[in-house]
Amino acid sequence: MGIPLSAAVTLGLLFFLSVGLNEQVAEGCECMARHPQQLFCASDIVIRAKITGKKVISTPHGLTAYSVKTIKTYKSVNKKPIRYIYSHQTSCEVTLENDEYLLSGNVEDGMIFIDLCNLVKHWNHVSSFEKRYLSIYQRGCDCEISPCTGASCLIKMLQKKCLMRVKDLFIIDDEEALQSICLQSSDGFCRWNKPR
């Protein structure tokens, strides 16, 4: 005597769903490789800040609030002082210590949110190039930085694009680009530059 058809179908669906859910959980947080200038331009705020506290807030999806002391604002959508930043408790959740960071994020419902796909670096791990370019990145936000591989990286003249070599979608393989900023020249073309 075998298993009834309805039970077999139910068992099959449960197996299918459990495999799908396990695959989603196992994948975790994946962020495409992006140049620091891209992260800057895509953000509503970019600050150098000291984390001064942390509080877990009970919400349906979980939320962590960090109190911050802003040291320097590089980009902001409004002039109000930033006192708190938030991170959703997901696979891309940011975990910060009481230390100085370079942080970028976006405003949602009047609150600033950050995750692992934003600029989140201990200040002492920010390269000297990034520190120098933080006040210039805004000028390059009209240019697009596009990933390339192999022969596609040989194309030099694209009007509004700078190309950046990547090993795959998640790893940048272009030290020259990481030490440069993509700016529009007087001829209308965007090019990698090393402003002094």
Write down the secondary-structure element order. Answer: HHEEEEEEHEEEHEE
Termini, distance in Å? 81 Å
- Poorly predicted parts: 1-26
Helix fraction by DSSP (H/I, runs of at least 4): 10-25%
Question: What is this structure, in a nutshell?
Answer:
The protein is an alpha+beta fold. The chain contains four helices and eleven strands.
Chart the SSEs and their pairings.
Elements: H1 5-27, H2 36-42, E1 45-57, E2 63-75, E3 84-88, E4 100-108, E5 111-113, E6 120-122, H3 128-133, E7 144-148, E8 161-168, E9 171-172, H4 175-178, E10 181-184, E11 190-193
Parallel strand pairs: 7-8
Antiparallel strand pairs: 1-2, 1-4, 2-3, 4-5, 4-6, 8-9, 10-11
What does this structure look like?
- This protein has 196 residues and is an alpha+beta fold.
- It has helices spanning 5-27, 36-42, 128-133, 175-178, and strands spanning 45-57, 63-75, 84-88, 100-108, 111-113, 120-122, 144-148, 161-168, 171-172, 181-184, 190-193.
Jot down its keywords.
alpha+beta, three-stranded mixed β-sheet, 4 helices, about 20% helix, disordered N terminus
